[in-house]
Amino acid sequence: MYYELFREELIKRYMFLYENKELILAMCIRKINIDDELKESIKTWEDYLKRLKINDKTVFIDMINSYKVQLGIEKPYLCDRVSDNIVSAFEEVLFTDGDLEDTQLYKHVMGLKNNPVFFESVMDLVDDLNTRRSFNQFLKNYPAFSVWKILGYVRNKYKNNSVALDALDKYYNIERTMITGLDSENGYLIFGDECYDDEKLSKYPSLTLTGGVPGSYIICDYKKNKYELEDDYFVFGDEEDKVLEGESNTVFMHSLSKMPMLSYEDKMIIRSKYYGDVNLTLK
Question: Labelling 69: which of 19, 96, 138, 170 has CA 20 to 30 A away?
Answer without folding.
Answer: 138
